Amino acid sequence: MIVGDSISHGAEGDYTWRYRIWQWLQSNNVPVDFVGPYKGTNPPDDITPPSPPSTEPRTFGGYALDAEPFDSDHFAVWGRQAAQDKDQIAAHITTYMPDHLLIELGFNDLGWFVSGPEGTLESMKSLVDNARAVKPDLKFAIANVPQRSHLGGRDDLPIITDQYNELLVKAIPEWSTDISPIKLVKFREEYSCEPEACPAGYDGLHPNALGEYEIARAFSIALQPDYAPGGSSLAVPAVIPPRPCPAPVNVKATTGSGSVIVTWDGVYGAFNYDVQTRVGADGAWTDPSTLSSAPRWEYWPVTDGMTYAYRLRAGCGDALRSEWSEVVSVVAHA
C-alpha cells in the first residue's frame, strides 16, 4: 500500500510515480496487488458555487490519457501529513492487510508549520508503530523528504528538511526489526529539485513526468533486493515527452448584471489557466492573470455598452503553456 500526500496522489492528467513503479514491477514479473481506499488522482476545481467543505478526499481524477490501465489503489491524499496519517493507518491496515507499506510523507508537516524535524520524526515513528500493532510483520519503505524551489518567507525550509532527513537516516536502523524491516528510500537524493531550480517539478515541488520517474526509481532502488533479485532498479528514460497542453476551445463570453462571465471546455490535465482582457476596440491586452483549474471566470466591474474581449491559454506547469485560444468578445450590460 502506498501512503502519501499530493506528491503520490497526483493531479488529473499525471501518470504518477505510482504508475511508474507498477510498470517496473510488471517488467520484473512481480505479481503485486496494490491496495488502499482510493484509486484516482486529484481532479480539477469545481465550477459550482462555494459550499461547505467536504471531509471526503477528492480522489476521482483521471490519469494521463495514454497510460495503460493499472492497479491504482492507494492511500495518498492531497495535503496529507504524517501527523494525520499516524492516526488513520491502523484502520487501513486492518481493512487491506498489506505486506509492504511504501510511505512518502513529511513535506507538509515541515512545510506548513505542523511540526519541526523532531516532531515530524515522532509522527513517522507513531505511524510505523500503529501499523505494526495491527500487522507485526509488515515491511516498510520510507522516503525521506525532497527539497523544493525557494518558497518566499521560508528560508528555514531547506535547513529543516535536511535536519529531518538526517534524523530519519539514524532512526530507521533503530526502528527496523527482523520480522518488520524498514528500508530508507532516498527520494531527496534521486529527485532533481533544489531551492535554486526544480526541473523534476512542474511547480517547484510536485513531480512532472521526469519527477515521476525519479521518485519511482528511488523506491525501486530500495525494493529491488526483495522484489527483483537479479534484476535492476528502474531506469529514467533519456527522453521524456512533454505533457500535452492544447489551447482551450469553445470559449464563450456572456454579459450579466455588472459583470462578464467567460467559460470554456476544460483542458484535460491543465493545472490552471491564464486569461487576458482587452477593453474597447483599440485597447491593449492586459498582462496575463492566472486562474484556477476551473473552466470559468467572472470579470467585473464593467461599463455598460463597452466591448470586452478575452483570450485564454492552459497552464500545464511553470514552464509549459498552450497557445492562446481564439478571441471572444461581448458588449457588456451593467
Record the SSE blueprint.
Blueprint: E1 2-4, H1 6-9, H2 17-27, E2 75-76, H3 82-85, H4 89-96, E3 100-104, H5 107-111, H6 117-134, E4 139-143, H7 157-175, E5 182-185, H8 187-190, H9 209-227, E6 249-255, E7 260-265, E8 272-279, E9 289-291, E10 296-299, E11 307-315, E12 328-331
Parallel strand pairs: 1-2, 1-3, 3-4, 4-5
Antiparallel strand pairs: 6-7, 7-10, 8-9, 8-11, 11-12
Instruction: Supply Rg.
Output: 23 Å
Number of strands: 12
CATH class of the largest domain: Alpha Beta
Helical/strand content category: alpha/beta
Distance between the termini: 55 Å
CATH topology of the largest domain: Rossmann fold
Main sheet properties: 5 strands, parallel
Protein name: Carbohydrate esterase family 3 protein
Biased composition (Pro residues): 46-55
Region (Disordered): 36-58
Pfam family, one: Lipase_GDSL_2
Please give a structural write-up.
The chain is an alpha/beta fold. The chain folds into two domains: 2-227, Rossmann fold; 249-331, Immunoglobulin-like. 28% of the residues lie in helices and 18% in strands. It has nine helices and twelve strands. The protein has helices at residues 6-9, 17-27, 82-85, 89-96, 107-111, 117-134, 157-175, 187-190, 209-227; strands spanning 2-4, 75-76, 100-104, 139-143, 182-185, 249-255, 260-265, 272-279, 289-291, 296-299, 307-315, 328-331. Strands 2-1-3-4-5 form a five-stranded parallel beta sheet, sandwiched between helices. α2 (17-27) crosses α9 and α6 runs parallel beside α7. The longest helix has 19 residues, at 157-175. It starts with a strand and ends with a strand. The model has no long low-confidence stretch (mean pLDDT 96). Residues 245-334 form the Fibronectin type-III domain. InterPro entries: Ester_Hydrolysis_Enzymes (IPR051532), FN3_dom (IPR003961), FN3_sf (IPR036116), Ig-like_fold (IPR013783), SGNH_hydro (IPR013830), SGNH_hydro_sf (IPR036514). It comes from Melanomma pulvis-pyrius CBS 109.77.
